[in-house]
TrEMBL record:
Family to which the UniProt record says this protein belongs: Belongs to the universal stress protein A family.
Originating species: Ramlibacter albus
InterPro entries: Universal_stress_UspA, UspA
Pfam family, one: Usp
UniProt superkingdom: Bacteria
Membrane-spanning segments: none
Descriptive protein name: Universal stress protein
Residues in UspA domain copies: 221-279
């Protein structure tokens, strides 16, 4: 019996790329029989201005009108996208700071999040804070489908690569990805390091676990030693495989009230060339 997502939360900002995120979220929803919730979450325009507290009430009012016009434009694009008669979606707006906290509160109630890679070149356009994705992925504990900020996105996840390591992060990501893995045409598991079993007799392993879920995976060991640049190698192997999706655990920790990603997670988040399903 196949598992399925039932509620998908997609992040909307002020860019055209939000439309691609919404389209992919609805494509997954169509496959899974899920609902889609679209939540617009951006920073107010006055936040980045120098001496913002000293701005007069007229200037603040004008900036708020600008933000409201951007939200209306995003809502119009959202409504236009729904005109195709596909899966329906609800609309909401985070209207309080901090932006990530408002979205995070909604993330707890979703089976899957659909987020966009941070684009440093379009920060003013998106109005999304730099650490938004990290804060949501790590803070919510919910699986997140993070989409690259540029390039064409796949219409479906036919070939899926799984980065596997015997850690809780990898295990959570694998479980979270089951609804997609069960519907993929090909699943390839990439591993580094030696696998040891510490039990005698019949033991559990990854291939058998996936087989029990109806997934005939191709397990491909990549070497006994995990290289320092494993993040770049993962992206390279995904390109070689023609993968539509990479599934991996997300490593991170809190430092000075910010979420800091581990090395591999950081590399993937900065350099992704395909959608990545992450779980912390």
């Amino acid at each position: 019996m196949k598992t399925a997502y039932r509620q998908i939360l997609v992040h909307i900002d002020n860019t055209q790329r939000s439309g691609a995120r919404l389209a992919l979220a609805r494509a997954v929803a169509r496959q899974q029989g899920a609902w889609v919730a679209a939540v617009h979450a951006t920073m107010p325009s006055y936040v980045d201005l120098p001496y913002a507290p000293e701005l007069g009430p007229i200037a603040i009012a004008e900036l708020r009108q600008l933000d409201e016009s951007l939200v209306r434009a995003a809502r119009d694009r959202f409504e236009t996208a729904l005109a195709d008669g596909g899966p329906r979606a609800t609309w909401a707006v985070v209207d309080e700071l901090p932006t990530a906290a408002g979205f995070l509160q909604q993330a707890f109630y979703a089976d899957l999040l659909v987020l966009g890679q941070y684009d440093a070149q379009d920060r003013d356009g998106s109005r999304v804070p730099p650490g938004f994705v990290e804060s949501v992925v790590i803070g919510s504990g919910r699986p997140a489908l993070v989409l690259p900020h540029s390039g064409e996105l796949p219409s479906s996840f036919d070939t899926v690569a799984v980065a596997w390591k015997e850690t809780r992060e990898s295990a959570r990501a694998l479980t979270a990805a089951m609804p997609l893995l069960q519907r993929a045409s090909r699943v390839v598991v990439l591993t580094w390091g030696k696998w040891h079993t510490h039990v005698r007799g019949a033991h559990l392993d990854l291939a058998n676990l996936l087989r029990l879920h109806g997934i005939d995976a191709d397990i491909q060991p990549q070497g006994e030693e995990e290289p320092a640049d494993v993040g770049e190698l993962l992206l390279s192997r995904c390109a070689d495989l023609g993968a539509d999706l990479l599934v991996m655990g997300c490593w991170g920790h809190s430092r000075a009230r910010e979420w800091v990603l581990g090395g591999v997670s950081r590399t993937i988040m900065q350099s992704m060339t395909l959608p990545v399903l992450m779980a912390h």
